[in-house]
Amino acid sequence: MESAKGLARGLGMTVSDLIRVLLQLPAEEVRGGARLVVVDRTTAARLSREMTRWGHHYNQAVHALNAIAYYLRANDMETAEVVEELSRAERKLAEMQPGVESLRRAVAELSGSVLAGLGR
After folding, report:
1. How far is CA 64 from CA 59, 84, 87, 106, in A?
2. Which residues, 6+ apart, have CB-to-CB distance to 37 below 8 Å?
3. In 3D, which of 90, 91, 86, 47 has the Cα closest to residue 69?
4. Three-state SS sequence of 12-24
5. Nearest Cα to 87, choosing from 102, 68, 111, 72?
6. What pLDDT is attached to residue 104?
7. Is 25 helix (H, G, I), strand (E, B) or coil?
8. How far is 17 from 47, CA to CA, in rounded Å?
9. pLDDT number for residue 4
10. Which sign does the torsion angle of CA 80, 81, 86, 92 carry?
11. Which distant-in-sequence residues (6+ apart) come within 8 Å of 34 by Cβ?
């Protein structure tokens, strides 16, 4: 029990939450010493909000590129306007890049782990 309390405390969980997570683990993985990653609802909601934010930036960048293409086809856009719109799209995509790279690294690291959900 002391070991469970210490482990739960170190993970910032209650002993009850720790037991719920441990019960979700496939026995073969536990015996094999696999790495366990626990995702709680708060963290899942944060990930969802961040992905939505990235999607918004991506959508704005694509919208800017579509606007450029539309006005160029209509011969209704000056070179300076094209450059300005391209710069705006580039900025939006550049804003996303650090987060995308961070997510890529995190997902690559998690891909070999056993995932367990925590309902709190």
Report:
1. 9, 10, 10, 30
2. 110, 113, 114, 115, 116
3. 86
4. CCCHHHHHHHHHH
5. 68
6. 77
7. coil
8. 21
9. 87
10. positive
11. 112, 113, 114
- Copy the structure tokens of residue 70: 């539309």
Q: Spell out the per-residue pLDDT of the chain, length 120, in tens.
A: 998 899 889 888 889 988 887 787 777 766 777 676 767 777 778 888 888 888 887 888 788 888 878 877 787 777 787 788 788 778 877 887 888 888 778 777 776 676 666 655
| Contact (CB, 8 A) for 43 and 33 | no
Q: Please give the structure tokens belonging to residue 90.
A: 């580039």
Q: Are 86 and 68 in contact (CB under 8 A)?
A: yes
